[in-house]
Write a structure and sequence with these properties.
binds zinc ion; alpha/beta; 562 residues; 10-stranded parallel beta sheet; 35% strand
């Protein structure tokens, strides 16, 4: 059945598979069984509203509401609406003395639900950043078991890594994204088991390569693409070891030469052969970056999952639709962002080890709660207030009936009450928008301001010496003004050591500008129908039909590249 999105007016399909799934998610309150509401917005609008609640890489200096100490947080001290969010350190939030039911309040059935919930969310303390068992990683969020890392997110088991997204088991990786079991890499994207690579993307088990893409088991390759098991290659042609090394040595350490190589690298990405989708060992799936999964459609970044629809980032997920960042066996979840082991939850933000939750945020190890924030090990709570089971099953259906009348039931938390501006959230990474466009759609916006850097000197990036060898040690005491945004940024001591050991010239761009350019390496999360450039068979791909890249079906790609 085709429906029209109330937000963007495009028509979208609300099909049988989704209906069948929605019947399976049930919330039972005594005699009353509540089902999910039919969607009124298209999947894309719903995704953007959902992920606008996830800030992965904007960190601020804030103050603990408990101890007054200065802490780093994903919440800026200046609110975008109402009063500021209260933040606690990890230890303060996890302490046995912290019990969020002390903020519990009564429901007013005559007032809009979202207004009441959002005021509650403003008084309950939030965890400053989301981290587990790190060492010396204050400036990170969404990280676990990491050591000496700076400005990385969504990463685990990493050491000495900087400025990046999704690093797993990496050492000394800087300015990269989607990196697995790799080390000493710089400006790399989607790499598995690679070492000493710079400006390399979509590659596996390769080392000592530069400005290349789609390499498998290669070493010492430069400006190469779609190669397997090759060494000492330049522009896909073999070169003697001596000639290759001389060529690389001429490139290393010069900013100007790196810039021209980057241009050649970009041209190479436009003319190389692309696979229609990055889907491996999977059955009946559509989307991109899917591994070992089946029956997942319109899904992105899925591993070991089945029977899902419109999920972005799912691990071990089963029967989940319209969710984002769901990990470790989420099941029967709908319109939920950020879960670990969640079962039968809908319209939630960050519910971990919990079941039967509706409209809750930051709740851990809870069951049967409605409209709660920051609870741990609770059951039958509404707006953080504890009820007896008999009261709970009576009151919740009454709230839902009122929400239906006000057209609130089935809607996700409205963007006007979000914790983050659109541009602070992952939404800006998935679908970049201008302030005007985002605010017109009801999203909030954060004006980015820099504290004046406490440094001996600010140097314009373009005034830095071209050769790395001519960069003085004092550069770590300076701020560099970004060539594009003018925003000042610093170089860390360890970072400078990394650049020197790898012959990589200093960056001229502010970290968020670098981050944004890197994320553009990925296609938007939208599927198109087009035909294979080789055999003309139909393919489903994230490459829009008008894009210049050469896109092959899986079969033709494998024939050509291996
Ligand atoms: Zn829409
Ligand atoms: Zn083909």
């Amino acid at each position: 059945m085709l429906k029209n999105c109330v937000q963007c007016s495009t028509s979208f399909d609300f099909g049988d598979a989704e209906r069948a799934f929605m019947k399976k998610v049930q919330f039972i309150f005594g005699e009353t069984t509540v089902h999910l509401a039919e969607p009124t917005q298209c999947p894309r609008c719903r995704m953007l509203i959902r992920v606008s609640n996830r800030n992965e890489n904007n960190l601020y200096r804030n103050t603990s509401a408990q101890s007054g100490e200065s802490i780093i947080s994903i919440y800026a001290p200046e609110p975008l609406w109402g009063s500021p969010y209260k933040v606690y350190t990890q230890e303060q939030w996890n302490a046995d003395t912290f019990d969020a039911t002390t903020f519990g309040c009564d429901v007013d059935l005559d007032k809009p639900f979202f207004e009441q919930f959002s005021s509650l969310s403003k008084v309950v303390p939030h965890m400053a950043v989301v981290t587990v068992s790190n060492e010396n990683c204050d400036y990170t969020t969404g990280t676990g078991y990491c050591k000496n890392c700076y400005l990385i997110n969504s990463s685990e088991h990493c050491i000495d890594c900087y400025y990046g997204k999704l690093y797993q088991n990496c050492n000394d990786v800087t300015d990269s994204a989607y990196m697995y079991d790799s080390e000493l890499c710089y400006e790399c994207f989607s790499m598995h088991g690679c070492t000493r690579c710079s400006f390399v993307s979509f590659s596996k088990n390769s080392h000592d390569c530069m400005f290349s893409a789609d390499l498998q088991g290669c070493k010492n390759c430069f400006l190469c693409a779609n190669l397997s098991q090759k060494e000492y290659h330049f522009k896909n042609q073999p070169l003697s070891k001596d000639a290759y090394e001389t060529m690389v040595n001429d490139v290393l350490g010069s900013h100007a030469t790196f810039e021209s190589m980057k241009q050649e690298y970009r041209a190479l990405l436009e003319r190389k052969i692309w696979k229609a989708a990055n889907i491996i060992q999977s059955e009946d799936c559509s989307g991109d970056y899917i591994e070992n999964s089946r029956h997942c459609h319109h899904c992105y970044d899925m591993t070991d999952s089945q029977d899902c629809g419109y999920v972005q980032v799912g691990v071990n997920a089963k029967d989940c639709w319209h969710c984002s960042n769901i990990y470790l066996k989420p099941e029967l979840c709908y319109e939920t962002l950020g879960t670990i082991e969640a079962y039968n939850c809908a319209y939630c933000l960050y519910v971990f080890h919990s079941q039967n939750m509706l409209y809750c945020e930051h709740c851990y190890s809870c069951l049967d709660c409605f409209g709660c924030s920051g609870l741990r090990r609770k059951q039958y709570c509404i707006f953080n207030k504890q009820y007896a089971k008999e009261e709970y099953v009576k009151i919740v259906p009454m709230i839902i009936e009122k929400m239906k009348l006000r057209k609130e039931w089935g809607q996700f938390f409205p963007p006007k009450f979000s914790s983050f501006g659109y541009n602070e959230s992952v939404a800006q990474e998935y679908a970049p928008m201008t302030k005007e466009d985002a605010t017109a759609l009801g999203f909030l916006w954060r004006e980015q301001r820099d504290e004046p850097p406490n440094v001996s000197r600010i140097i314009r990036a373009e005034d830095l010496p071209d050769r790395l060898a001519d960069i003085p040690d004092e550069v770590i005491d300076w701020a560099i003004a970004c060539e594009e945004s003018g925003r000042p940024f610093r170089i860390l001591k360890k970072e400078l050591e990394f650049y020197r050991s790898q012959g990589i010239p200093l960056p001229h761009l502010h970290p968020p500008v670098r981050y944004k350019k890197r994320m553009n390496m990925r296609n938007p999360r939208t599927l198109y129908e087009r035909t294979c450039a080789k055999c003309n068979n139909p393919i489903t791909t994230t490459f829009a039909p008008n894009r210049p890249e050469i896109v092959y079906c899986e079969k033709c790609y494998l024939k050509e590249v291996y």
